[in-house]
Amino acid sequence: GNIACLLCLPCAPFCSGSFQIQFANTEDKQEFSKYPTKAGRRSLSRSISQSSTDSYSSAASYTDSSDDETSPRDKAQVNTHGNSDFCVKNIKQAEFGRREIEIAEQGKSDLTAVYFVVPSQVLIETLVALGAQCRWTACNIYSTQNEVAAALAETGVPVFAWKGESEDDFWWCIDRCVNTEGWQANMILDDGGDLTHWVYKKYPSVFKKVRGIVEESVTGVHRLYQLSKAGKLCVPAMNVNDSVTKQKFDNLYCCRESILDGLKRTTDIMFGGKQVVVCGYGEVGKGCCTALKALGAIVCITEIDPICALQACMDGFRVVKLSEVIRQMDVVITCTGNKNVVTREQLDRMKNGCIVCNMGHSNTEIDVASLRSPELTWERVRSQVDHIIWPDGKRVVLLAEGRLLNLSCSTVPTFVLSITATTQALALIELFNAPEGRYKQDVYLLPKKMDEYVASLHLPNFDAHLTELSDEQAKYMGLNKNGPFKPNYYR
After folding, report:
1. Burial of 382 (0-12, 13-18, 19+ CB in 10 A)
2. Contact in structure between 418 and 458 (CB atoms under 8 Å)
3. Interacting residues of 59 by C-beta distance below 8 A, sequence separation 6+
4. 69 phi and psi angles, rounded to 5 deg
5. Residues 226-250: pLDDT tens digits?
6. 154 is in an annotated binding site
7. Where are the alpha helices (DSSP H) in 232-305?
8. pLDDT tens readout for residues 315-356
9. Is 332 annotated as a binding residue?
10. Where is NAD(+) annotated to bind (predicted)?
């Protein structure tokens, strides 16, 4: 699943094998290789056949196992190195989790193999290999793969996460991640802003040594802009969510595939002819709508933004108000990053069997709290699937308790996550190695040169060959032959 992580980075440029990036220049510039360099992959501890790859997918893992009901907080666990600075579901799952990570890393011989992720845990191992000391906790109570968390704990990474945490567990894990003796973070990598919020609330002194925050989600970025507007942001922050490589790849292509995966795994729904409303037509909404329409679903959109609404109309979708169509819908999907997008009143008006899920962020888009009332009955029918039963017998199917469907109920495309993880790593490197004064106490976007560099690292996987500008063409366009090719305002 996605990550919230504090980092202690070395006071030197990151370097691993033949791969080196250095931003700590006296001049205000970044230099990148024109073409991706090669980096050797870690040799696998075993040869993994295609059949074992199928058998050990994250969907068929220990993650949903309920054989041990003891809370991880009540266990005394030690890895084989005698280290106990972690809290996971079961450290004995480490070997199985190591195989998961190896599967994620195999199959690519170029630089992107280093960043090739199924869960974001591979990113953590990459940062450790580059010299960082990390403490890790999950940003979602359902997104952790227990066996992979155990594998990281076995290597000595302090991990505080397991699948199915309670709200109290969630904040306890964040506190354990932050509150430790003899260790001081100097970077924060966050997804959703909860870690950053907790540090501001409980341990503001930590920011005395923190050089920057890297945030990947729309919700977390919104919280950072609120801090900045209020004059309370005390360190530079990098907005990865609005980078081109995040918006146009992770948000669009990842959600286009994982929405179908999540709905199929949890409900076995047939999409043909189903009435589906998607709330929000940003990049996430676009990905969901494209996938659902391709399988024959009848899709309509709700939007607040006239530009996005017009795009939806031009793409062949009907733009409606949720209150006008709620009674006819078979599936309701939120993709906004906002709160109370689906209210209790609208839930009351849904028809029997309507499926409700969230692809946006956090658990605020659907008013789940209002469903925990005496007159309604909750019935858990399978993992991450609850039937909410009204007094008249009507049932609404709620997935992942209103949390992110693709992180809680399905796997996500590893290649797309590789792009996002590379963007996050470069953002950390840029903030950490930036000369004093380059970044103020504000929120910044990733420089376009780095966006293009991330894309160039992944092109060899498709055997893609870029056309080069001639000197005359570059002069005519007013561009450097090596980029950046897009202006800073390009989204």
Report:
1. exposed
2. yes
3. 265, 410, 411
4. -90, -5
5. 999 999 999 999 999 999 988 888 8
6. no
7. 244-245, 255-267, 283-294
8. 999 999 999 999 999 999 999 989 999 999 999 999 999 999
9. no
10. 282-287, 303, 406
